[in-house]
Amino acid sequence: MKELISASKKVLSRPWYPLIGVVAGLLLLLAAIWLPNLSFIGSTLTSGYLSFGEKFGILASSLSALDTNFTPLSRTLTVTLAVLFAVDAAFLAFYLRTRFRLERSAGIGIGGIILGLLGVGCASCGTVVASAFLGAGATAGFLDILPLKGQEFGFLGVGFMAFGILLTARKIEQPLACDADDAAMLSDDRHGAKQHERFNPSHATGLDDASRFAYVPPDDVIAALDIPHGGTIIDFGTGTGTYAIAIAQRRPDAAVVAFDEQSAMLERMRAKPESKMLGNIAIVSGGGIGNYKNAADRILALNVLHELGDAALHELKDLLSANGEALFIDWNAEVDRPVGPPADHVYSPKEAAARLTDAGFEVREVKGGKGFPYHYSIAARPGA
């Protein structure tokens, strides 16, 4: 039930999806009313003797058949199916569009996306078709030989539709994820890293400390990223997703990919209510990041450059599109600070720029000691 309520809030927050649902529900209702009188409706529409106004009036008056031609039970089933159909259509539109955007940003072809969308399940996609035909056909009275005159299929349709809604709500509430064992992560070669030890997940609580925003404000990070409208941004080394969530909230037009090599960190991110509420964020671990090769318009590497080995840094570069840009924000070794790793574990701005150049980046801009009091920032693109 929590998943259903949370998914409903997401869908209702965008007016287009409720509108899609209303249109779908009305179409099903009209189909149920008009199907028993299809020949009459057809002759009315194709008549050369009736004006448009007269045709409209006849069609409108035929809607009263819901009162006169339906039993109380069949009328209740018809309206219930129409309402459930509307909800299911809105949920599916939201889910499919979100998945389509994120998988397209991963470079997955149309065929792959269509096959992937089958993962929604027959009880979700299938019910929209099956329940509509079963429900509308039954309430139209096609199966007179059954004890309830075919309305058994109406009950079946209601059950399928309700199950489909719950299943789709669950899909909406599970941010797209691509998990793999730690053995399948980015290259384990730490050669070239200034700090060879990985961040300890037992210290992950510190990543959610709101005081971080005081010295690395999300709005300043987003401004520095300059994400193009509708672009794809990868938060490389997202940790518990604090900044990925902030970006997704402030830039709903962007597809945000939250990547980390440690599954334990991402589990903390998935547990956050904010990540469940956002429809434009994908959580990726392990080899799944390879699906985004050459797909990123922007990459944020916050507090990770000093931990990246040479191989991982090259893999980061390969994620950028031809016009993509990476923003490295990391602890400044030249600044006295009360927080962060020791100075000998991180780079000075000059050292960081030199390392990126050696890795094949074209360093576009270096800012040290400005904007972020304890950090430097470097904007870099793939070299020629």
Give the key terms.
alpha/beta; elongated; 384 residues; Rossmann fold; 8 strands; 8-stranded mixed beta sheet; 16 helices
Structure description:
The protein is built from 16 helices and 8 strands. Helix 6 packs antiparallel against helix 8 and helix 8 (122-139) runs antiparallel to helix 9 (152-173). The chain has helices at residues 2-12, 16-34, 38-46, 52-61, 65-68, 72-105, 110-117, 122-139, 152-173, 212-215, 218-225, 242-250, 263-270, 273-277, 310-318, 349-358, and strands spanning 177-178, 232-236, 255-260, 281-285, 296-302, 320-331, 361-368, 375-382. It has an 8-stranded mixed beta sheet, with helices on both faces. With 384 residues, the protein is of the alpha/beta class. The model is unreliable at 112-146 and 177-187 (pLDDT under 50). It folds into 2 domains: 2-174, no CATH class; 178-382, Rossmann fold. It is 49% helix and 14% strand.
Give me the CATH fold name of the largest domain. Answer: Rossmann fold
Portion in helices: 40-55%
**Total count of domains:** 2
> In CATH, what is the class of the largest domain?
Alpha Beta
Helix-strand string: HHHHHHHHHEHHEHEHHEEHEHEE
Overall mean pLDDT: 78
Q: Whole-number radius of gyration?
A: 27 Å
How many angstroms does the end-to-end distance come to? 53 Å
Arrangement of strands in the largest sheet: 1-4-3-2-5-6-8-7
Strand composition percent: 5-15%
Low-confidence stretches: 112-146, 177-187
Major beta sheet, specifics? 8 strands, mixed
Instruction: Give the structural class.
Output: alpha/beta
Counting DSSP H or I runs of 4 or more residues, the number of helices is: 16
The 3D shape can be described as: elongated
CATH-defined architecture of the largest domain: 3-Layer(aba) Sandwich
